[in-house]
């Protein structure tokens, strides 16, 4: 079974631009979570989607948003990029919300100049 | 959210057992302990998880103390490929079963030849 895939793998943007990252979960998985990893803050939870609904949200500004489609694929969007948004963005999927193990994708490395 | 405390770094000789400790003294009764590892800024890899009983799989063993305030991940025969950052995580279940993983800073484990 194929793992979690994320596209693109690398991205360079400039301040003020917006970016959309994509995540395809493992086949049959319906829950998708997003995390941000930076050297200073470590791995931080952004949000979780299940059945196209945001079920949980971390402590990030409104510039960070996401959505999930009917096929469980998810996208996250960051608007008005800041230098501090440079990070590795990780997506994780699980079969359903609740008591299920999350499996991570390889991540998208975003560099904001 | 329950927090975890891990030593920032550890060394282990190749072929020996690596024992990674984790403190989670504020863990709640229904919160699981998860272990992931991350190699070279790849996506975190799931290792093992448990609630209150000791667990073992093909990768590792997880020993949880009776009061659940600490746990130890055991890699029985460490190899050079086990060099990674190991995260001990408490999985928090929020409203409606939504879940998130709360990452600490992890332990950088170095396996020496």
Task: Label this structure with key terms.
heterodimer, A: 113 residues, mainly beta, 7-stranded mixed sheet, 4-stranded antiparallel sheet, globular, B: 113 residues
Explain what the structure shows.
The complex is a heterodimer of chains A (113) and B (113). Chain A is mainly beta and 113 residues long. Helix content of chain A is 0%, strand content 53%. Chain A has strands at 5-7, 10-13, 19-24, 31-38, 42-50, 53-57, 64-68, 74-78, 87-94, 103-104, 108-112. In chain A, strand 9 and strand 10 form a beta hairpin. With 113 residues, chain B is mainly beta. Classes of the chains: A mainly beta (113), B mainly beta (113). The interface between A and B is medium-sized, with 30 and 24 residues.
Helix/strand layout:
The complex is a heterodimer of chains A (113) and B (113).
Chain A: E1 5-7, E2 10-13, E3 19-24, E4 31-38, E5 42-50, E6 53-57, E7 64-68, E8 74-78, E9 87-94, E10 103-104, E11 108-112
Parallel strand pairs in A: 2-11
Antiparallel strand pairs in A: 1-3, 3-8, 4-5, 4-9, 5-6, 7-8, 9-10, 9-11
Chain B: E1 9-13, E2 18-23, E3 32-38, E4 45-50, E5 55-56, E6 61-64, E7 70-75, E8 84-93, E9 99-102, E10 107-112
* SSE string of chain A, helices as H and strands as E: EEEEEEEEEEE
Approximate strand percentage of chain B: over 45%
| Number of strand segments of chain A | 11
Number of strands of chain B: 10
- Spatial gap, N to C terminus of chain B: 38 Å
Q: Regions of chain A with pLDDT < 50 over 5+ consecutive residues?
A: none
- The rounded distance between the terminal residues' Cα atoms of chain A is 37 Å
| Low-pLDDT windows of residues of chain B | none
* Chain oligomer state: heterodimer
> What portion of residues of chain A is helical?
under 10%
């Amino acid at each position: 079974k194929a793992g979690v895939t994320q596209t693109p793998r690398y991205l360079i943007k400039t301040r003020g631009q917006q970016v959309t990252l994509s995540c395809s979960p493992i086949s049959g998985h319906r829950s998708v979570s997003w995390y941000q990893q930076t050297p200073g803050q470590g791995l931080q939870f952004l949000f979780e989607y299940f059945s196209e609904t945001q079920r949980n949200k971390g402590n990030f500004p409104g510039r960070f948003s996401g959505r999930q489609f009917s096929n469980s694929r998810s996208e996250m969007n960051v608007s008005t990029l800041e230098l501090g948004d440079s990070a590795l963005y990780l997506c994780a999927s699980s079969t359903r919300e609740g008591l299920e193990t999350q499996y991570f994708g390889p991540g998208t490395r975003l560099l904001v100049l | 959210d329950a927090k975890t405390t891990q030593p920032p770094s550890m060394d282990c000789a190749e072929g020996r057992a690596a024992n990674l400790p984790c403190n989670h003294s504020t863990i709640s009764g229904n919160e699981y302990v998860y272990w992931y590892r991350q190699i070279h800024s790849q996506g975190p890899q799931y290792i093992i998880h448990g609630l209150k009983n000791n667990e073992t799989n093909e990768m590792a063993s997880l020993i949880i103390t009776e009061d659940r305030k600490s746990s130890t991940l055991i890699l029985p025969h460490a190899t050079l490929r086990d060099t990674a950052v190991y995260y001990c995580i408490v999985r928090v279940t929020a409203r409606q079963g939504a879940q998130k993983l709360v990452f600490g800073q992890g332990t950088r484990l170095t396996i020496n030849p």
